[in-house]
Amino acid sequence: MANYVQNTRKYEKWIKEGRGQGQKETYKPWLTVFDVPSEGRSHRIPSFKLKREITAFSDLEAARVYQLENDCSVIDYNEQYPLNRDRTLAIANRPEFAFTHPRIREFPIVMTTDFVVHYADRIEAEQIKPTSKLDNDRVLEKLKIEQAYWEEQGIKFLIKTEKDFPLDLRKNLQWLHQPQWYQTPDHLLRAFAAEFMELFTRYPNDRLADIAEYLELNTKLARLQEGNGLMMLAIQSLYR
User: Fold this and answer.
1) What is the value of pTM for the model shown?
2) Which residues pair with 43 in a beta bridge?
3) Distance (Å) of CA 45 to CA 49, 57, 101, 121, 176
4) Which CATH code for domain 2-165?
5) How confident is the model over 10-31, as a mean pLDDT?
6) How many beta carbons lie within 10 A of that of residue 185, not counting itself?
7) Phi, psi torsion values for 152, nearest 5 degrees
8) Domain locations in the chain as residue ranges
9) 200: Cβ contacts below 8 Å, ≥ 6 apart
Protein backbone atom coordinates (compact mmCIF):
# COMPACT_ATOMS: atom_id res chain seq x y z
CA MET A 1 0.00 0.00 0.00
CA ALA A 2 3.03 2.30 0.23
CA ASN A 3 2.59 3.43 -3.38
CA TYR A 4 -0.91 4.63 -2.58
CA VAL A 5 0.13 7.09 0.13
CA GLN A 6 -0.65 10.72 -0.64
CA ASN A 7 1.03 13.63 1.13
CA THR A 8 2.16 17.21 0.61
CA ARG A 9 5.56 16.21 -0.78
CA LYS A 10 3.95 13.91 -3.35
CA TYR A 11 1.46 16.62 -4.33
CA GLU A 12 4.27 19.11 -4.91
CA LYS A 13 5.97 16.56 -7.16
CA TRP A 14 2.76 15.89 -9.12
CA ILE A 15 2.17 19.62 -9.67
CA LYS A 16 5.72 19.99 -11.02
CA GLU A 17 4.99 17.08 -13.36
CA GLY A 18 2.03 19.05 -14.71
CA ARG A 19 -0.65 16.73 -13.40
CA GLY A 20 -4.18 18.12 -13.57
CA GLN A 21 -2.96 20.73 -16.03
CA GLY A 22 -3.06 21.23 -19.80
CA GLN A 23 -5.59 20.81 -22.58
CA LYS A 24 -6.20 18.09 -25.15
CA GLU A 25 -2.85 16.43 -25.92
CA THR A 26 -1.00 18.29 -23.14
CA TYR A 27 -3.37 17.37 -20.28
CA LYS A 28 -2.06 15.00 -17.60
CA PRO A 29 -4.50 13.29 -15.20
CA TRP A 30 -4.01 13.87 -11.50
CA LEU A 31 -4.05 10.14 -10.77
CA THR A 32 -2.51 7.27 -12.71
CA VAL A 33 -2.98 3.52 -12.37
CA PHE A 34 0.09 3.48 -10.13
CA ASP A 35 -1.33 5.95 -7.61
CA VAL A 36 -4.56 4.29 -6.46
CA PRO A 37 -5.64 0.73 -5.65
CA SER A 38 -7.80 -0.44 -8.54
CA GLU A 39 -11.27 -1.81 -7.80
CA GLY A 40 -11.59 -3.20 -11.32
CA ARG A 41 -9.70 -3.46 -14.58
CA SER A 42 -7.61 -0.42 -15.42
CA HIS A 43 -7.30 0.74 -19.02
CA ARG A 44 -4.89 2.88 -21.02
CA ILE A 45 -6.74 3.92 -24.14
CA PRO A 46 -5.12 5.72 -27.10
CA SER A 47 -7.23 8.76 -27.96
CA PHE A 48 -7.72 9.70 -31.60
CA LYS A 49 -9.53 12.90 -30.57
CA LEU A 50 -6.95 14.17 -28.08
CA LYS A 51 -3.76 12.56 -29.43
CA ARG A 52 -2.74 11.12 -26.08
CA GLU A 53 -3.31 8.11 -23.83
CA ILE A 54 -6.40 8.14 -21.59
CA THR A 55 -6.39 6.59 -18.12
CA ALA A 56 -9.54 4.71 -17.05
CA PHE A 57 -9.84 2.88 -13.73
CA SER A 58 -12.77 0.60 -14.62
CA ASP A 59 -14.66 -0.94 -17.50
CA LEU A 60 -17.39 1.67 -17.03
CA GLU A 61 -14.90 4.52 -17.27
CA ALA A 62 -13.44 2.90 -20.38
CA ALA A 63 -16.93 2.73 -21.90
CA ARG A 64 -17.35 6.46 -21.29
CA VAL A 65 -13.99 7.14 -22.96
CA TYR A 66 -15.10 5.26 -26.08
CA GLN A 67 -18.35 7.24 -26.02
CA LEU A 68 -16.55 10.57 -25.69
CA GLU A 69 -14.16 9.64 -28.49
CA ASN A 70 -17.08 9.10 -30.85
CA ASP A 71 -19.13 12.15 -29.82
CA CYS A 72 -18.53 14.89 -32.38
CA SER A 73 -19.88 17.55 -30.00
CA VAL A 74 -17.06 16.89 -27.49
CA ILE A 75 -14.11 19.24 -27.97
CA ASP A 76 -11.96 18.09 -25.07
CA TYR A 77 -12.23 16.02 -21.90
CA ASN A 78 -10.06 15.63 -18.81
CA GLU A 79 -10.02 12.39 -16.83
CA GLN A 80 -9.15 12.19 -13.11
CA TYR A 81 -9.46 15.96 -12.78
CA PRO A 82 -8.30 17.41 -9.42
CA LEU A 83 -10.58 19.59 -7.32
CA ASN A 84 -9.26 22.51 -5.28
CA ARG A 85 -8.70 21.00 -1.84
CA ASP A 86 -9.37 24.21 0.12
CA ARG A 87 -12.79 24.46 -1.52
CA THR A 88 -13.73 20.81 -0.93
CA LEU A 89 -12.60 21.06 2.70
CA ALA A 90 -14.79 24.15 3.16
CA ILE A 91 -17.77 22.40 1.55
CA ALA A 92 -17.36 19.31 3.72
CA ASN A 93 -17.36 21.52 6.84
CA ARG A 94 -20.58 23.32 5.98
CA PRO A 95 -23.17 22.98 8.76
CA GLU A 96 -25.67 21.34 6.42
CA PHE A 97 -23.07 18.71 5.51
CA ALA A 98 -20.50 18.32 8.32
CA PHE A 99 -18.95 15.44 6.40
CA THR A 100 -15.51 13.98 6.98
CA HIS A 101 -13.38 15.04 4.04
CA PRO A 102 -11.79 12.12 2.13
CA ARG A 103 -8.52 11.14 3.77
CA ILE A 104 -5.72 8.62 3.53
CA ARG A 105 -4.06 7.91 6.86
CA GLU A 106 -5.62 11.10 8.25
CA PHE A 107 -4.19 13.21 5.40
CA PRO A 108 -6.93 15.16 3.56
CA ILE A 109 -6.48 14.19 -0.06
CA VAL A 110 -7.23 16.02 -3.30
CA MET A 111 -10.59 14.81 -4.59
CA THR A 112 -10.96 14.08 -8.29
CA THR A 113 -13.78 14.06 -10.81
CA ASP A 114 -13.72 11.18 -13.28
CA PHE A 115 -14.37 13.33 -16.36
CA VAL A 116 -14.66 17.05 -17.06
CA VAL A 117 -16.17 17.25 -20.55
CA HIS A 118 -15.83 20.34 -22.74
CA TYR A 119 -18.55 20.88 -25.34
CA ALA A 120 -18.78 23.85 -27.69
CA ASP A 121 -21.41 25.54 -25.50
CA ARG A 122 -20.86 24.15 -22.01
CA ILE A 123 -18.73 22.17 -19.57
CA GLU A 124 -20.05 19.20 -17.58
CA ALA A 125 -18.48 17.22 -14.75
CA GLU A 126 -19.10 13.49 -14.45
CA GLN A 127 -18.58 10.81 -11.86
CA ILE A 128 -18.84 7.18 -13.02
CA LYS A 129 -20.22 4.78 -10.41
CA PRO A 130 -21.88 1.36 -10.50
CA THR A 131 -25.40 1.52 -9.07
CA SER A 132 -24.36 -0.97 -6.37
CA LYS A 133 -22.29 1.80 -4.74
CA LEU A 134 -25.03 4.41 -4.66
CA ASP A 135 -26.63 2.95 -1.54
CA ASN A 136 -23.40 3.48 0.43
CA ASP A 137 -23.72 6.49 2.74
CA ARG A 138 -20.02 7.35 2.58
CA VAL A 139 -20.02 7.28 -1.23
CA LEU A 140 -23.05 9.56 -1.25
CA GLU A 141 -21.33 12.02 1.09
CA LYS A 142 -18.36 12.29 -1.28
CA LEU A 143 -20.68 12.76 -4.25
CA LYS A 144 -22.51 15.57 -2.44
CA ILE A 145 -19.22 17.37 -1.81
CA GLU A 146 -18.29 16.97 -5.46
CA GLN A 147 -21.70 18.15 -6.68
CA ALA A 148 -21.59 21.24 -4.46
CA TYR A 149 -18.08 22.01 -5.73
CA TRP A 150 -19.16 22.08 -9.36
CA GLU A 151 -22.47 23.82 -8.73
CA GLU A 152 -20.55 26.67 -7.06
CA GLN A 153 -18.88 27.19 -10.44
CA GLY A 154 -22.09 26.96 -12.42
CA ILE A 155 -21.14 23.60 -13.93
CA LYS A 156 -23.59 20.73 -14.19
CA PHE A 157 -22.58 17.60 -12.27
CA LEU A 158 -23.71 14.19 -13.52
CA ILE A 159 -23.51 10.69 -12.07
CA LYS A 160 -23.33 7.96 -14.73
CA THR A 161 -23.82 4.25 -14.05
CA GLU A 162 -23.84 1.02 -16.04
CA LYS A 163 -27.39 1.95 -17.08
CA ASP A 164 -25.84 4.65 -19.29
CA PHE A 165 -23.60 2.07 -20.98
CA PRO A 166 -25.56 -1.06 -21.98
CA LEU A 167 -23.30 -4.03 -22.74
CA ASP A 168 -24.01 -3.96 -26.49
CA LEU A 169 -23.16 -0.26 -26.60
CA ARG A 170 -19.87 -0.88 -24.80
CA LYS A 171 -18.90 -3.65 -27.20
CA ASN A 172 -19.81 -1.62 -30.28
CA LEU A 173 -17.95 1.47 -29.14
CA GLN A 174 -14.86 -0.55 -28.31
CA TRP A 175 -15.06 -2.28 -31.69
CA LEU A 176 -15.15 1.10 -33.43
CA HIS A 177 -12.01 2.06 -31.53
CA GLN A 178 -9.91 -0.72 -33.07
CA PRO A 179 -6.37 -0.04 -34.31
CA GLN A 180 -7.58 0.05 -37.94
CA TRP A 181 -8.75 3.59 -37.16
CA TYR A 182 -5.22 4.74 -36.38
CA GLN A 183 -3.38 2.72 -38.99
CA THR A 184 -5.31 4.07 -41.99
CA PRO A 185 -3.75 7.28 -43.38
CA ASP A 186 -6.04 10.26 -43.99
CA HIS A 187 -5.58 10.12 -47.77
CA LEU A 188 -6.76 6.49 -47.84
CA LEU A 189 -9.77 7.30 -45.64
CA ARG A 190 -10.74 10.05 -48.08
CA ALA A 191 -10.28 7.70 -51.01
CA PHE A 192 -12.40 5.00 -49.35
CA ALA A 193 -15.05 7.65 -48.68
CA ALA A 194 -15.15 8.50 -52.38
CA GLU A 195 -15.59 4.83 -53.29
CA PHE A 196 -18.40 4.46 -50.74
CA MET A 197 -20.19 7.48 -52.17
CA GLU A 198 -19.90 6.00 -55.66
CA LEU A 199 -21.36 2.69 -54.47
CA PHE A 200 -24.19 4.36 -52.52
CA THR A 201 -25.11 6.33 -55.65
CA ARG A 202 -24.99 3.28 -57.87
CA TYR A 203 -26.87 0.96 -55.47
CA PRO A 204 -29.14 3.22 -53.36
CA ASN A 205 -31.40 0.35 -52.23
CA ASP A 206 -28.69 -2.11 -51.15
CA ARG A 207 -27.97 -2.95 -47.52
CA LEU A 208 -24.90 -1.49 -45.83
CA ALA A 209 -23.46 -4.99 -45.42
CA ASP A 210 -23.79 -5.56 -49.18
CA ILE A 211 -22.05 -2.27 -49.94
CA ALA A 212 -19.23 -3.18 -47.54
CA GLU A 213 -18.84 -6.63 -49.11
CA TYR A 214 -18.73 -5.13 -52.59
CA LEU A 215 -15.98 -2.77 -51.47
CA GLU A 216 -13.97 -5.69 -50.05
CA LEU A 217 -14.10 -7.44 -53.43
CA ASN A 218 -13.75 -4.50 -55.80
CA THR A 219 -11.90 -1.62 -54.14
CA LYS A 220 -9.33 0.03 -56.39
CA LEU A 221 -7.17 0.94 -53.38
CA ALA A 222 -6.21 -2.34 -51.75
CA ARG A 223 -7.67 -5.75 -51.19
CA LEU A 224 -9.56 -5.68 -47.88
CA GLN A 225 -9.87 -8.72 -45.63
CA GLU A 226 -13.33 -10.12 -45.12
CA GLY A 227 -15.20 -7.96 -42.63
CA ASN A 228 -12.93 -4.94 -42.97
CA GLY A 229 -15.27 -3.29 -45.45
CA LEU A 230 -17.89 -2.91 -42.75
CA MET A 231 -15.24 -1.60 -40.36
CA MET A 232 -14.16 1.01 -42.91
CA LEU A 233 -17.80 2.01 -43.40
CA ALA A 234 -18.15 2.49 -39.64
CA ILE A 235 -15.00 4.60 -39.58
CA GLN A 236 -16.27 6.74 -42.44
CA SER A 237 -19.50 7.41 -40.53
CA LEU A 238 -17.43 8.99 -37.75
CA TYR A 239 -14.55 10.44 -39.77
CA ARG A 240 -14.38 14.23 -39.97
Assistant:
1) 0.73
2) 56
3) 11, 11, 31, 26, 13
4) 3.40.1350.10
5) 96
6) 8
7) -60, -30
8) 2-165, 178-238
9) 211
